[in-house]
Design brief:
Rossmann fold, single chain, four-stranded parallel sheet, seven-stranded mixed sheet, 11 strands, alpha/beta, 37% helix, Heat Shock Protein 90, 300 residues, 9 helices
């Protein structure tokens, strides 16, 4: 089980990075304070580098904000720090800086940049154009997949920003993630609970065409205290819904044979206005911008 879990996690990480490079991952975008995000990462970044690497932070005196996926930005910064660390096996100085640039590449919009600068080996000029390609790496075999920079590159472009790399052999490298600036907003208070919410017999209609996924999800929901009714596709779910006296929640895969999950949800919400819906998907073309994907469902 441990070996299977490890393999699955590696496969998931590979798929995630390839989706990031191709700019087809689903981004949960919201207003993010860049300085606050770097502060929250400080302890993790300090533990990531070796003792002989001096890490310092040069944060912008302003409080710059961007509109992006905070988790993806954290992953991007962590990837850049790991690359910088690996470029300094004998020690050096690693600097993480934030700044605001008024005009960049002819754009009238100000950009917030997160810069990761090292004093490592540097990258030869003939390799600079290749370092963001998937699977291209200068690291020895077994020490890198070549997906770190490609993931950061894809994320920056999908967030309407860019990635720039400046490097001099023997001096070091500076990698910058630049994203459009957003006006400051008040931070939302987190209401997340550390405890898993248990059910009290509420009925859930679970729709999933993959037998293994359907059985596992059904088992988990049952263990949590819910009454679960399962269907393989939209037609079977409609028939089951009509037979059931009450359904408290629809849990459906987006990609179903025939009628897809979103169409199913719209039909069921017409039959029962206000029916809560939880979508499950590994990938959906229309779900890349989550706010746009959910809007028609939420308005029902």
């Amino acid at each position: 089980m441990d070996a299977a879990l490890t393999s699955a996690q590696r496969a998931a990480s590979l798929t995630h990075r390839l989706l990031a490079f191709s700019r087809r991952q689903s981004l949960d975008e919201k207003a993010v304070s860049v300085n606050a995000l770097i502060h929250s990462l400080a302890d993790l970044l300090l533990r990531t580098v070796a003792e002989q690497v001096l890490i310092q932070f040069e944060l912008c005196p302003e409080e710059p904000w961007v509109f992006t996926d905070a988790n993806q930005l954290e992953n991007a910064v962590l990837n850049l720090v790991i690359n910088a660390r690996d470029a300094m096996p004998h020690g050096g100085k690693l600097t993480i800086a934030t700044c605001v640039e008024d005009e960049m590449q002819g754009s009238p919009v100000r950009h917030v940049c997160v810069k990761v600068r090292d004093t490592g080996f540097g990258i030869p000029k003939d390799m600079l154009d290749k370092v963001t390609e998937p699977f291209f790496t200068t690291k020895p075999i077994g020490q890198g997949t070549g997906l770190g920079l490609s993931m950061v590159y894809g994320f920056a472009n999908q967030s309407n920003g860019c990635l720039s790399i400046e490097s001099t052999v023997g001096v070091g490298t500076t990698v910058s993630i630049c994203l459009p600036e957003r006006e400051k907003v008040e931070a939302e208070q987190s209401m997340a609970s550390s405890e898993i919410s248990k059910g009290h017999g509420q009925s859930i209609l679970l729709v999933e065409d993959d037998d293994s996924v359907r059985l596992i999800n059904g088992e988990v929901l049952t263990e949590l205290g819910y009454q679960v009714y399962m269907a393989r596709d939209g037609e079977e779910a409609l028939a089951l819904f009509n037979d059931l006296g009450n359904v408290d929640l629809l849990v459906t895969d987006v990609g179903l044979p025939g009628m897809n999950g979103r169409q199913l949800a719209e039909i069921l919400q017409q039959l029962r206005p206000g029916l809560p819906v939880l979508f499950l998907t590994g990938y959906a073309e229309g779900a890349m911008a989550r706010a746009h994907f959910w809007a028609p469902i939420c308005s029902c």
